[in-house]
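Backbone-to-sequence.
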């Protein structure tokens, strides 16, 4: 039992505990930060230059995992089940319009301009301790041909090696992420890899992908803290803008993204893994903040992701989406589009 507890603490440590000290203040726009590469630290690590006192101490971490009382402890014991629908890709592909399918957590499959793009693919359990609470909606073998894989950051619930290898073997797609993943991809034999630093653009025919800043961090092992940059991606095609955010805390940069790139037609923002707030707020938005992001970027359609799939933090799995629905007021912009696991959305119908 003790070994399981130690392993769990280690996994959580890798997922959530940064070891660097605090960073500077926002003195320029996030575009300037990106263009001047102010997020590149002199020690080869990346940082959120606007985020003062972002970092939690080791004492904070211990306070969370060992000493703090989870106020949701009893509620988490209740069994929860979410609806899962198996996407019918042959039927979806008959429609000439682009579509997006949410496959749980941060995994979204998009058909845009005839290309298939999948985000942060996690097709199975993360490991034997972090198992799916809601099944992957389709057998991975039945996924349509994937052309591009977008990776938001290196945390294990977003960059899953088993899924990456599966996609590589099956479809040999291009992998797109921020800088800092070269060693990772080459270690598993991937050479079709495109690194997009913040504000970099990449064009696939008439599809444009832009990497944009988020407030997050990265860690996969003891010594690689913040060596893989965290990004969100804007995908534009045929006059429609899709903006997908992997993990992020709330920060003022979303207003600037809204001014420069909005309105966004289809927005994906995480709404789960945010309690306790005193520890999680810096790097994980809660439903209120996710809605604020949607308003900031002037989203027309807001699809909440990162809920109901993996149990990573203190709040019960059912809470994020329930709370989001409660606080959402019937607004025309953004329209809240809550998808089932496996559910689809066609933007311009
Ligand atoms: Zn993360």
């Amino acid at each position: 039992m003790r070994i399981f507890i130690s392993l769990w603490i280690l996994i959580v440590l890798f997922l959530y505990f940064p070891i660097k000290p605090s960073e500077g203040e926002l003195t320029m726009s996030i575009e300037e930060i990106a263009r001047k590469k102010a997020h590149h630290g002199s020690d080869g690590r990346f940082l959120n230059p606007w985020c003062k006192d972002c970092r939690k101490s080791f004492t904070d971490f211990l306070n969370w995992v060992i000493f703090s009382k989870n106020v949701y402890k009893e509620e988490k014991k209740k069994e929860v089940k979410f609806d899962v629908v198996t996407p019918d890709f042959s039927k979806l592909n008959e429609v000439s319009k682009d579509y997006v399918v949410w496959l749980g957590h941060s995994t979204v499959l998009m058909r845009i301009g005839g290309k298939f793009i999948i985000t942060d693919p996690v097709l199975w359990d993360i490991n034997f301790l972090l198992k799916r609470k809601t099944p992957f909606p389709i057998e991975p073998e039945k996924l349509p041909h994937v052309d591009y894989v977008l990776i938001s950051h290196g945390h294990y619930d977003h960059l899953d090696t088993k899924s990456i290898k599966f996609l590589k073997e099956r479809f040999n797609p291009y992998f797109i992420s921020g800088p800092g993943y070269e060693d990772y991809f080459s270690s598993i034999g991937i050479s079709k890899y495109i690194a997009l630093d913040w504000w970099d653009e990449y064009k696939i025919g008439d599809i444009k992908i832009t990497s944009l800043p988020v407030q997050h961090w990265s860690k996969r092992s003891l010594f690689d803290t913040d060596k893989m940059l965290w990004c969100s991606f804007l995908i534009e095609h045929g006059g429609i803008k899709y903006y997908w955010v992997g993990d992020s805390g709330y920060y003022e940069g979303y207003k600037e993204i809204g001014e420069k790139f909005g309105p966004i037609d289809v927005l994906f923002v995480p709404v789960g893994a945010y309690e306790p707030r005193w520890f999680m707020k810096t790097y994980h938005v809660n439903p209120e903040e996710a809605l604020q992001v949607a308003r900031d970027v002037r989203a027309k359609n807001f699809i909440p992701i990162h809920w109901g799939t993996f149990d990573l933090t203190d709040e019960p799995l059912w809470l994020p989406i329930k709370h989001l629905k409660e606080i959402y007021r019937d607004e025309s912009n953004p329209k809240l589009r809550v998808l089932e696991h496996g559910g689809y959305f066609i933007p311009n119908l």
